[in-house]
Amino acid sequence: MHVxxxxxxxxxxxxxxxxxxxxxxxxxxxxxxxQALEAAGLSITRFAMRPDPQPxxxxxxxxxxxxxEYVLDxxxxxxxxxxxxxxxxxxxxxxxxxxAGWRGGKGRGLLRQFIYLAEGAWLARRxxxxxxxxLHAHFGTNSTDVARYSRLMGGPGYSMTVHGxxxxxxxxxxxxEAKIADACFVVAVSDFGRSQxxxxxxxxxxxxxxxxxxxxxxxxxxxxxxxxxxxxxGHPLQLVSIGRFVEQKGQMMLLEAMARVRQPMxxxxxxxxxxxxxxxxxIARLGISDRxxxxxxxxxxxVAEALSQAHVMVMxxxxxxxxxxxxxxxxxxxxCITTYVAGIPELVLDRRTGWLVPAGSADALAxxxxxAALSLPERLAEVGAAARERALARHDICDSAxxxxxxxxxxSEKQPLPAPSPHPVPVLSASA
Length: 432
Prior knowledge:
Pfam families: Glyco_trans_1_4
CATH class of the largest domain: Alpha Beta
Order of helices and strands: EHEHEHHHEHEHHEHEEHEHEHEHEHEHHH
Family: Belongs to the glycosyltransferase group 1 family. Glycosyltransferase 4 subfamily.
Mean pLDDT: 93
Protein name: Glycosyltransferase involved in cell wall bisynthesis
Number of strands: 13
Shape: elongated
Keywords: Glycosyltransferase, Transferase
Radius of gyration: 23 Å
Strand order of the largest sheet: 3-2-1-4-5-6-7
Organism: Paracoccus tibetensis
Low-confidence stretches: 2-9, 425-432
Distance between the termini: 30 Å
Structural class: alpha/beta
């Protein structure tokens, strides 16, 4: 991976990445971001509270596991001693934990905050030992609690990436206002996400709210596979939907739509999660087992193969940040059928790079599926090519890493944040 960044030509800086559970197969975008920053010349130390309880399958995830320091592995004694020393030296940090504990809801109370405080105290000491100049947390949840408490206990400044939608559903419980106020900067993954953060940030501090897209590696999508034969006689429309089986992803609505379509098509519903039993029951209840298959969870390579066998990617989400699976499908030159929620309309242009439908409307979703099934193969290929062009222009991991490197350096050197750069938007032909 080649990254063009002025950081590669200057004194390297050490950045600590803080994540609750890492690595996780569902969060490959964090791994890509870290590796792109390292390619740009930054030194990244990975910190996680705990490893993923699920076995790691791919060599790259296993390598990330070996490179990660796990805070809870230090043990209760080490963390307790770090907490005692930290509180004695920085009593304001204890006050912040008490305040957050009173505000938090279930799972966010006082005891939990003091566990985060102990983790932050240990992390502050570790940053001093290793010369880490800045901490960056992914998600505005407990990982950012730990980074914030580390700063309050004498550690370096911090920033965070807020993905949504979970953070936007629990602003008060997560104490997000205080985290934004104390952060050097806050990354949103879409303009919509930035707008939600601006609701909880004084207008004078809006410059610290930065938009940096999650990125994809061009090299992975250098040679997109052609669409399969069809759709047409003897070749039903092939659909794939990729995502965790949870309410916000809208798979249950997609099944309702599959029961209403008029054209021949088949759906591969890739993933797993809490809704898996209900999804199986709904498929049986609706009598669509001949139209829907459930291959289960897939790794990156298997997902790429599933995309290559599909004409169209479907993501009927009810709530989102800006889904990485969507941009990856577009980079693979697949048109997408998805919903008008959160940051999705910033990426998908209706009937130019895919179809946008109202979230929650099974009828509208079924109509879009039928329209795709009736499209000429040349039309689907044209829309897929436009989707690929847009995804690669807006979500190149090299561009995102270069932007983050600028922000990290400004914070570590206590310089003003660089001005936002406009997002590249390719000119699409009228037919696209």
